[in-house]
Amino acid sequence: METKPNDIAPKVVIVGGSIAGLALGLMLQRIGVDFVILEAYKEIAPQAGASIAFFPMASLGCWEDIYAAAEKGTNKFTIRYSDMSPILTLDDLETKVTQRLGYGLVFLDRRLVIEVLYNHILDKSKVITSQKVVSVESRAEGVKVWTNDGSEFTGDMVLGCDGVHSTGRKEIAKLEGASQENRRSPPPLFGIAALLMEK
């Protein structure tokens, strides 16, 4: 159930129109907060990135579409050391996850996830492509964001959802007076591989 933006709610400028930015946009849409998503690419959902594992997205209102687009039958899941020896193997994963959570675990192309999330944004004019953020300024009345073509966007807050080489994060760090090199963050854990035959 979506609500309409109101005059009291803040306006949020979201930098990045991929999974995090679109999911955040859907959350804000559901609670009636105004937002704009600025995406550097010229299109939403380019053919880029690998497959991704997804748990339920029902709270965003798009689980059925995610499930319909997904590869079914994730029945074996193995976490491995760098030498490929198994740390943990779970058999019949889809059944176990469905029993515990009420929804299954699915794998699908990153592009398909982005398409589903984008399709659930009601007002497509809130997602603007070819808008690479180049500068962010904090002001008494909120924030101002400039993009590569000279466009300006204002809001009450800016949130960086533009990936690992985040311009948004760098600009926000400047506002906080901290360099990216001096900021600590946990190392990422990620990976996906084709099924390997057990020895």
Give the helices and strands, then pairings.
Blueprint (H helix, E strand, L loop, with lengths): L10 E5 L3 H13 L2 E5 L12 E4 L8 H7 L6 E5 L5 E6 L1 H9 L4 E4 H10 L7 E2 L4 E7 L2 E6 L4 E4 L1 E4 L6 H10 L23
Parallel strand pairs: 1-2, 1-11, 2-7
Antiparallel strand pairs: 3-6, 4-5, 8-9, 9-10
Helix pairs in contact: 1-4
Please summarize what this structure is.
The protein has 199 residues and is α/β, with parallel strands linked by helices. The protein has five helices and eleven strands; from the N terminus they run E-H-E-E-H-E-E-H-E-H-E-E-E-E-E-H. The strands form four sheets. A four-stranded parallel beta sheet has the order 7-2-1-11. The chain has a three-stranded antiparallel beta sheet with strand order 8-9-10.
Structural account:
- Residues 11-177 form the FAD-binding domain.
- Belongs to the paxM FAD-dependent monooxygenase family.
- Pfam families: FAD_binding_3 (PF01494).
- This is FAD-dependent monooxygenase andE.
- Keywords: FAD, Flavoprotein, Membrane, Monooxygenase, Oxidoreductase, Transmembrane, Transmembrane helix.
- By secondary structure, the chain is of the alpha/beta class.
- The chain has a single domain (11-181), classed as FAD/NAD(P)-binding domain (3-Layer(bba) Sandwich).
- The protein is built from five helices and eleven strands.
- A four-stranded parallel β-sheet has the order 7-2-1-11.
- A hairpin with a 5-residue loop joins strand 4 and strand 5 (86-91).
- Helix 1 (19-31) packs parallel to helix 4 (110-119).
- The longest helix is centred in the N-terminal third of the chain and has 13 residues, at 19-31.
- Residues 193-199 have low confidence and may be disordered.
